[in-house]
């Protein structure tokens, strides 16, 4: 599939992705026009907000089932769409007593909603739309019958979850043991995170922009070839 133009949708709550730098990276890498657009979740109508709220995952062990959100859930979704930084006030994965406390979304369902938003104004299949969001997008894996967080969901539009970039990759086994010990003793795990800071990303990590470059490449190559990932550990298309 040919790409005529790439649209990058910003996530203002995570300035560390440095959307302007990502645009320059694409301009230097590909012979294609690149345009930055504001957060796609801002200024949505009530019906669209309700649809997004209906994408929430409440039991990660069950496949997606459409959920009819109540007024409180719709109001919550409206607030985190209008001000995405409010998502940071929700329960983080590392702080959750149970994973159901974390705000999660079915990635394919929300992708379909984003497609509908974009298609109202752009029907050109050669325009690739890549949406950055701090929503934790997940997909259901039938091999172990549960949802998993995803950093990237390819296709058009593609979604790159900044929360998924942090939470989806597995961390060293030793980290989980050390973090568990701290929690059992009622201690803060920040010191543990510092000890493993070179092993994984953290929220508002300065390395997010550089890592995002690799995910951008995956979305583009998937759209062009149908295959996003490379088996070589030295390749930026490796899904490590």
Automatic annotation (TrEMBL):
- Please give the InterPro entries that the UniProt record associates with this protein: DUF6775 (IPR046666)
Report the domain of life of the source organism. Answer: Archaea
The name under which this protein is listed is: Uncharacterized protein
């Amino acid at each position: 599939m040919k790409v005529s133009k790439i649209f990058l949708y910003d996530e203002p709550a995570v300035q560390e992705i440095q959307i302007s730098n990502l645009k320059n990276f694409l301009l230097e890498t590909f012979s294609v026009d690149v345009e930055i657009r504001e957060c796609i979740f801002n200024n949505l109508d009530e019906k669209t907000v309700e649809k997004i709220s209906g994408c929430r995952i409440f039991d990660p062990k069950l496949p997606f089932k459409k959920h009819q959100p109540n007024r409180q859930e719709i109001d919550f979704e409206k607030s985190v769409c209008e001000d995405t930084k409010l998502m940071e006030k929700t329960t983080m994965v590392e702080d959750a007593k149970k994973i159901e406390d974390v705000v999660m979304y079915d990635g394919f369902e929300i992708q379909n909603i984003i497609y509908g938003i974009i298609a109202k104004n752009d029907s050109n299949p050669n325009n690739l739309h890549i949406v950055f969001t701090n929503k934790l997008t997940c997909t259901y894996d039938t091999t172990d019958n549960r949802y998993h967080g995803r950093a990237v969901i390819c296709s058009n539009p593609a979604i790159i979850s900044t929360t998924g970039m942090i939470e989806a990759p597995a961390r060293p086994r030793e980290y989980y043991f050390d973090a568990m010990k701290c929690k059992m003793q009622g201690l803060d795990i920040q010191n543990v995170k510092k000890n493993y800071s070179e092993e994984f990303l953290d929220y508002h990590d300065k390395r997010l922009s550089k890592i995002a470059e690799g995910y951008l490449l995956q979305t583009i190559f998937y759209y062009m070839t149908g295959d996003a990932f490379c088996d070589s550990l030295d390749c930026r298309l490796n899904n490590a």
